[in-house]
Write a structure and sequence with these properties.
mainly alpha
Length: 293
């Protein structure tokens, strides 16, 4: 017999009086989730190729006067969404890389190498989570304006966005907790075979940490793609600003249909990223077989 326990037992599930209402409830909840989750995206996709007048007069109608494919072309060429799209990719990829490097190396040092001061550092990192992000804007901006050791301002460079993104205490603690759950027998066996700290990190820890790397990647890419305030402050040059900064700026001077097309283009990457990472993101992390019995 199965050892899994659910709200409805297997015996009750066989009764039509229980099975039929429960199935109907499941279907209704599934439809509600689909409507709440997909309807806004589907409406945006429809409006992106719908004439502006149709969107204003019949917002829920399905192409009453045909399609307006030119909206996509105007958004890409005339509004220069293509340029801002590439800028956003640069910002996102850089933030993702920096966050991943800092989180994995920091978590590895605190959870696997375990120096004598590891608990103190972990406590200090945890304490930074209680500091509101808005409080750090001014000192962080001054640091970017006059960075130590560098000597030149980082304003209007992507480094001004990339480097602060790595200072994510949440990611470090998340990865650290995952590393603490890895089997220590594997580390001991690798050290016995002569593996050093770097080889242990690169060849043992990282391959076993794909689930948590996927989670950090999804969080980091989603946050970087939607970040508005900090890129607006440190990237005043419009030519290198990402979509999250430029789209609100052009809203008042752009045709509604073209603007909705631009929003649809900007929404593509987060959707694609989630579809690519959903299995890794939802999977708890199967580490079975890492230790040979």
């Amino acid at each position: 017999m199965s050892t899994d326990r659910t709200i409805i037992s297997e015996t009750d599930w066989k009764r039509p009086a229980v099975r039929i209402p429960t199935t109907v409830l499941h279907v209704v909840l599934l439809l509600l989730l689909i409507v709440v989750g997909l309807l806004p995206l589907l409406w945006l996709a429809k409006s992106a190729i719908t004439p502006t007048q149709d969107t204003l007069q019949h917002p829920m109608a399905l192409f009453p006067n045909g399609f307006a494919w030119a909206n996509l072309a105007h958004a890409w060429n005339d509004v220069h969404i293509g340029t801002y799209f590439v800028n956003t990719i640069w910002v996102t990829v850089g933030e993702w890389a920096v966050q991943l490097i800092v989180a994995t190396t920091g978590g590895y040092a605190l959870a696997v190498l375990k120096p004598a001061y590891a608990k103190v550092i972990s406590g200090l990192v945890l304490a930074t989570l209680f500091v509101p992000a808005v409080v750090l804007l001014v000192p962080l901006y001054l640091t970017i304006l006059h960075p130590p050791l560098v000597g030149t301002s980082l304003l209007n460079t992507y480094w001004a966005v990339w480097l602060p993104a790595g200072a994510s205490a949440f990611n470090v603690l998340l990865v650290m907790r995952f590393f603490q759950g890895l089997p220590t027998e594997v580390f001991e066996a690798a050290e016995t075979d002569g593996a050093g700290p770097f080889r242990l990190f690169w060849s043992i820890v990282l391959p076993m940490s794909r689930p948590i790397l996927g989670v950090v990647s999804v969080f980091g890419i989603s946050a970087a793609w939607a970040d508005f305030l900090w890129p607006m402050l440190v990237l005043p040059n419009q030519q290198i600003q990402p979509l999250s900064v430029r789209l609100p700026a052009i809203a008042s001077q752009t045709d509604l249909g073209v603007y909705l097309a631009a929003l649809a283009i900007a929404s593509l990457i987060p959707v694609v990223i989630f579809l690519c990472f959903q299995r890794t993101f939802l999977r708890g992390g199967g580490l079975g077989g890492a230790v040979k019995g």
